[in-house]
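dumping these here so i dont lose them again. two proteins, back to back, each one seq then structure tokens. dont judge the mess
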Amino acid sequence: MHKFAHMADIHLGAHREPTLQKLEADAFSKAMDKCVELEVDFILVCGDFFHIGIPDLSVVNEALLKIRQVQKAGIPIYVIYGSHDYTPNGTSIIDILDTAGVMTNVAHWRVIGSKVKLDSFEDKKTGAKLAGISARKIGLERKYYEMLDKESLEKEDGFKVFAFHSAITEFKPEYLSEMESLPISYFPKGFDYYAGGHIHQRGEFKFPNYEKIVFPGPLFTGYGKDLEATVKGEQRGFYVVSFDNKVRQIEFQAIKNFEGIYQEYNATGKNALEVDKELRRLLDINVNGKAVVLKVRGELAGGKTSDINFPEIRSRLLGMGALYVHLNRYGLSSKEFPKFAARGEEVSAIEGRILSERIGQVSISQQTLKDPSVAMEVLRVLRQEQKSNELKKDYQNRMVRSAIETLRLKEVFGQ
């Protein structure tokens, strides 16, 4: 009997806030320690190992210290690209670590005529065959799936794992209904295990000819909606899969590194000062050492949303010993000062909706540049900060090059 760990969406380097940085690193460290303790034969990370393709080197260095411990225990780490691992210039930290022998990218394919042929990677110790398709920004991996030579993959014998970093239409959570996804029919049939990533929600599914489709969810995340779910009790962690010639057991290993408190408040029909006072009473509880998530929604009958002193409420909670405070005010509005109607609780969701609604007003001949997902990717690229040892001119040039590559302007204009 053999076993491997399946995890995804680690997102190392995602946070600037020191507390979240530490929680993020602790979760990764605990997961690696657990893999060593359980003596897994290998670890498979299905995308978004790091939060960006070229992360801060201090984040990489800290991760390497733990990865070296795993290597010394004789446990190889196999990976595929996630959407956050991709970079416009084609080389990311994943490629560098692969070249250095720290981890192995198992997603390799060749375009032969009108077909994409995947090369299976065989784990020497267990004989397990790993094949997969890495994610690409702006949903470009869909083209690879559409061209995929599924027949040759289905004919291969042995224990087979298909790794991917995409949403599957048939199993997509309702709150992600507008997310780009792929139908299950795009995947090769008959694999023993389909190791997923990208969806920040744990799920185990089955479908005719696709017996075990598994999403482990994020190892840790400090994003608003995900943090809310964690505080409410949704477990974070990874799977351990026991197998010989087929899967014998799938067990979720929970990683918990903080406790939390979730409070939701409906401000509808109340004025801003009244809400401010009631929130202070609501939060007069023991928050010491806990992450606090406060969700305020509804339409104020009077006053502005800015009349509610959220910064002071946050400071008060931190002064009471709260580990971290997340304030969700996306659903709060005022009759006196209505805000632009853009549904969604996450910044990215709101931005996506605004871009989708407004992009039709832009007059441009190249229709490929009117894709909202392209605009979202450009936003992500331009939000990259100047590196500590990078000259301003070099930073500006890097941003321009990245934007041009993301917009695919060289393809469009042939220069």
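---- next one ----
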Amino acid sequence: MTNFLRKLPAMMFAMIALTIVGCNTNEDPVDPTNEKPNAPTELMARSVSETQVALKWTAPTSGPTPTGYLIMYSEVGGSTGTQEISVSGGSTTSATVPGLTEGKVYEFMVHAVNGTVESDASNKVNWAPARRGTGAYRLYSSNSSTNGSGLAIFSGSAPSVQLIANGGQWDICFDDKTNPSDPRIASPGQTQYVDNNFQFPNGQDARVVYWGKQYTGITSLDDIYDTDALTIPAADGEKFWSLNSIGGTSNWGSVIGVKNADNTVNFAKVLVKRTGGTFVQGSGAGAYIEVEVSYQTMKDVPYALKQKMEQWGQQVRTPVRAND
């Protein structure tokens, strides 16, 4: 009993000290538990170059504010596993993923991060890197004898403007020949550059170029993000677009698919620049439009999903000219 009484003051002091520490509300816990953030939404992608893909997403609108994001990506069907990129700052909602391989398709998703706690994943997007043409290409009036009216995107090592003598290489063209008062950007086979057999004067066949999705309200190719594979009509997709009929004040873009002899397809995005309120610059034989392109050198890679397109079969091309 005597020893117990001697120890009592020390025991009481320890208990009081423990109580004081436990009730101290002026210091954060040593190992805090952060609340799980909500997942980002509306993940979208675009090709920057043959080795880079850009992503953008919408931050969570409720729950704790993220301290950053975690991008997770992997090659579809690959064996290298999932890779990660950390993005600092809850207000940062875009990033570029480098070090990719042309012709490969990647699956991307994004997690919001609150400290060390990750959200569920955003929607998944499959995308592939693609090449970017060098600057803007000028396509000149059909009345020009020295400047080309068509752009060959897939016929050489890089896009190039070609004269009508090489019309069989054209993937798109500037058409003021069908109706000078209604200038167009068109599939070569839908113009009067070719005859009713879809051949140029030198006997070259016009390439089969189908047009798909349109983009308006854009400044550059960098404004065009998507979530789904680029698609084009399986038939009857050769078109012309009247430049006079495209409203608004911004540039205009579209998707094209160029059919190859082996029934594969090369895809591209084409942007037509509007300067001073109009697409057509200059006049007479010096009239021209400027276009920019992002394109896939690999066949059957519509940027988003590497999949064999629906079998084209033998397409019947009705020899009908675009209406004037």
